[in-house]
Each structure stands twice: as structure tokens, then as C-alpha cells.
């Protein structure tokens, strides 16, 4: 009996060791981009995004990972997203203007039924981020992880990191390679262009004589500054809508190209193409005014995430077709399939880019030119002359 008892104890010890080893294998350690070591399951299948940037990027990795969303989807976005996500609970935003919408108590309650593996935060590292994330992780008992994806150059490395974090290494590597190759393609092309960059402005809003534009040096103007000469002044605002200008300012700048943000009924684009003062600009007369496509997100930003790569592909081809001489339709469809998991039809693509191609933009002035009264054109020219005269008197 004694020997039998010893053998039984040994069996129990061996079994316990195997169970302990198996339990240890079920978790892993991950170090995020602010140096926090986090214990995570080996396989991740339940993720909550901490804000709109994380929501966009997480979707590109795998829509099946979502167990909550940071905010509800707009009507435009609903067309492109997996319908399962439309009924998920909203957990809010941790950082940014809506930081207070992520409530630790709500996260704790949701976690009881969602069993969240990790809350994902994406963006620019802030000085207080490490203690902030440590604090909310302690309060909720849910792991929080941060990955840097701020500048365009951050995107390839961030996808490798995200693939590791979210146990989706193949998709992480696929998106990392795509973005790395794209940035290398544009670096080479922009070196060819050199100092011969076209001038442009990015108009985000128009209200009578008041015009909002994104200034150079802004995080929101990274693509504009890269592919062209952004004529807007150095950014004074961190907002995605940029800074305020008058119509007289715009007339003096007289850019080669105008990119205008999407608005309901294409209101800003139509204003530029049909207003007599705007029509005095060479960009309008030459058919070089383009409205940024919008779906599922505005290609120019709002928020400025991976879709900015689309704006780079698009604007590069518009301004330098001899350098970036690819078929834009093919490239856009490829991007939507890879990052938005959506296969665009030709009709959908045409609707999306209704005022975003050289054909449609070039056609619009010719169609509306006869309807613009000659006195309107003269008024615009007079306004320009008056503004320049005033500047010389200062």
C-alpha cells in the first residue's frame, strides 16, 4: 500500500506538472510600444478598439476579432462593414476629444459577457500613456495594448507588430509588405519629380467668404505636403478641418490643384466649380479640382488613418500621371479588398470617385462655363486685383 500510495502521489505530481505546463502555454507576454509588458492569450479572438483609429486598423487585420466597437458606424460606413459589427456594444473612446466615453465600470461589466482578450489602442504615443493604460487596466482587469501608427512611415512596422499582438501574423505581414512596397514606390517617384512639385491646397470647408484649409506641417496634411507644395500657411490648428482663410487669400495663392473634402450633395465641390470668384483660379479653369472620395472613410482623413494611403495613390496619379502611371481603378479595388475586405464593383467605384478623376473634373467647367455671367468673372478678377493692391500698401 505504501508503494502504491507513493506511485499515486507521483502520478498526481506529474499530472499537475503537465496541467501547469499546459496552462503556461495558453498565455504569452507581449511588450507594447510604450514598453508595457502584457500577459495575453496565445490565440486572440476577442478585441475591443479604444477609438476610431484602432477601429479602422483592427478591421483591416480581421473583422472577426471585434466584440465591441468604439463608436457607431455612419450611414456611409455601414455599406462597407460586416453587418455583424452593427449590433455590437459600443465601448467608447479612450483618448482624444471623446476620451470620457470609455468608462472603466462599463468595460468591466461588458467583459463579464464578452471575455475581452485585449483593448487595442492605436495612434501617437503620449507622455502619460503608460501610466494611463496601466491605470485603466488595473481598474478594469482587462489588458490594454498600444501600437504606434501615426506617420505614414509607421504603418509597415505597425502591421508586423499588430500581427504578433493579435495572433494574425500572416495578415500583418501581408499588409506590412503592401504598405512598405507602396511607400518605396512613392519615395522613388517623388525623387524623380524632385523640385517640380505641383502646388495645391486642401479645402475642408467653405462658408461664404470663409474657407478652411489644412496647413502645411500638420499631421493631417502629411500626404498633401509629401506629394505637392501645400500653399496653405504653416498649420496653427491641430484640428482636421485646419485653419481659416478668406476668399481673397485663396485668390492670391492660385494653386495648380485644389483638393476639396466631401460634403453632402458635393456642396463644396459645386461651390468651387460654379462660383464666379472661384472660377478665376487657374485650377478651376484647367479642370484640376477634385473631391476626395468618401467611403467607408474620407480618403484624406477624418480620422487620418490607413485610408491616407489611398489619397496618396489617387493624388499622385492625378498630378504626375507620367511618373505614377498605373491604372487607378485597379489600385483602388486592390486596396479596398486588402484593407476594407470589400470588393468594389465598377459602378460602386464610379460613384465613389464621381468628382475624383481627370475626366469628370475636366468636364465640369466646360458644362458650366456658359452659365457663368461675364460680370461674375470680372468681379472675381477685380477682387483679386483689389486684394493685391491692398497688400502693396501695407
On the 0-100 scale, what is the average pLDDT? 88
Radius of gyration: 26 Å
Per CATH, the architecture of the largest domain is 3-Layer(aba) Sandwich
Please tally the β strands and state the result: 11
CATH class of the largest domain: Alpha Beta
Order of helices and strands: HEEEHHHEHEHHEEHEEHEHHEHHHHH
- Ends distance: 108 Å
* Beta-strand content: 5-15%
Largest sheet: 6 strands, mixed
- Please report the number of helical segments: 16
Low-confidence stretches: 8-24, 365-379, 383-394
Based on secondary structure, the structural category is alpha/beta
How many domain regions? Answer: 2
- Helix amount: 40-55%
CATH homologous superfamily title of the largest domain: Nitrogenase molybdenum iron protein domain
Broad shape: elongated
Summary keywords:
alpha/beta, 3-stranded parallel β-sheet, 2 domains, 11 strands, 6-stranded mixed β-sheet, disordered C terminus, 394 residues, Rossmann fold, single chain
Task: Tell me about this structure.
This protein has 394 residues and is of the alpha/beta class. The chain folds into two domains: 25-182, Nitrogenase molybdenum iron protein domain (Rossmann fold, 3-Layer(aba) Sandwich); 196-393, Nitrogenase molybdenum iron protein domain (Rossmann fold). It has 16 helices and eleven strands. The chain has helices spanning 2-25, 52-61, 75-78, 104-114, 129-140, 155-165, 169-193, 222-227, 247-253, 267-274, 282-285, 308-319, 328-339, 346-352, 358-368, 374-393; strands at residues 27-31, 37-41, 47-49, 118-123, 144-148, 199-207, 210-213, 229-230, 243-246, 257-260, 289-291. Strands 6, 7, 8, 9, 10 and 11 form a six-stranded mixed beta sheet that branches. It has a three-stranded parallel beta sheet with strand order 3-4-5, with helices on both faces. A two-stranded antiparallel sheet has the order 1-2. Helix 6 runs antiparallel to helix 7.
Amino acid at each position: 500500500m505504501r508503494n502504491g500510495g507513493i506511485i499515486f502521489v507521483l502520478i498526481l505530481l506529474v499530472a499537475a506538472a503537465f496541467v501547469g505546463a499546459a496552462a503556461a502555454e495558453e498565455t504569452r507576454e507581449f511588450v507594447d510600444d510604450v514598453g508595457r509588458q502584457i500577459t495575453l492569450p496565445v490565440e486572440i479572438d476577442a478585441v475591443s478598439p479604444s477609438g476610431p483609429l484602432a477601429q479602422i486598423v483592427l478591421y483591416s487585420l480581421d473583422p472577426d476579432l471585434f466584440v465591441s466597437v468604439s463608436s457607431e458606424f455612419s450611414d456611409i460606413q455601414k455599406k462597407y462593414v460586416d453587418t455583424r459589427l452593427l449590433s455590437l456594444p459600443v465601448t467608447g473612446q479612450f483618448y482624444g476629444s471623446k476620451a470620457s466615453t470609455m468608462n472603466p465600470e462599463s468595460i468591466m461589466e461588458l467583459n463579464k459577457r464578452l471575455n475581452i482578450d485585449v483593448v487595442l489602442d492605436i495612434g501617437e504615443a503620449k507622455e502619460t500613456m503608460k501610466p494611463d493604460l496601466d491605470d485603466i487596466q488595473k481598474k478594469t482587469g482587462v489588458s490594454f495594448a498600444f501600437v504606434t501608427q501615426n506617420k505614414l512611415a509607421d504603418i509597415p512596422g505597425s502591421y508586423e507588430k499588430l500581427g504578433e499582438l493579435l495572433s494574425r501574423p500572416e495578415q500583418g505581414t501581408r499588409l506590412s509588405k503592401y504598405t512598405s512596397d507602396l511607400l518605396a514606390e512613392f519615395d522613388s517617384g517623388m525623387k524623380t519629380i524632385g523640385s517640380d512639385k505641383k502646388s495645391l491646397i486642401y479645402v475642408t470647408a467653405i462658408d461664404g467668404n470663409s474657407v478652411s484649409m489644412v496647413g502645411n506641417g500638420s499631421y493631417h496634411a502629411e500626404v498633401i505636403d509629401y506629394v505637392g507644395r501645400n500653399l496653405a500657411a504653416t498649420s496653427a490648428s491641430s484640428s482636421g478641418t485646419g485653419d481659416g482663410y478668406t476668399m481673397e487669400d485663396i485668390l492670391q495663392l492660385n494653386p495648380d490643384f485644389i483638393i476639396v473634402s466631401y460634403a453632402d450633395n458635393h456642396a463644396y465641390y459645386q461651390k468651387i466649380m460654379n462660383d464666379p470668384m472661384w472660377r478665376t483660379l487657374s485650377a478651376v479653369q484647367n479642370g484640376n479640382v477634385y473631391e476626395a472620395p468618401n467611403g467607408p472613410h474620407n480618403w484624406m482623413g477624418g480620422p487620418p488613418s490607413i485610408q491616407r494611403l489611398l489619397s496618396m495613390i489617387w493624388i499622385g496619379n492625378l498630378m504626375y500621371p507620367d511618373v505614377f502611371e498605373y491604372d487607378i481603378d485597379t489600385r483602388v479595388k486592390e486596396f479596398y479588398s486588402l484593407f476594407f475586405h470589400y470588393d468594389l464593383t465598377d459602378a460602386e467605384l464610379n460613384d465613389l470617385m464621381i468628382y475624383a478623376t481627370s475626366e469628370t473634373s475636366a468636364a465640369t467647367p466646360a458644362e458650366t462655363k456658359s452659365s457663368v455671367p461675364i460680370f461674375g468673372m470680372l468681379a472675381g478678377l477685380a477682387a483679386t486685383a483689389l486684394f493685391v493692391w491692398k497688400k502693396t500698401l501695407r
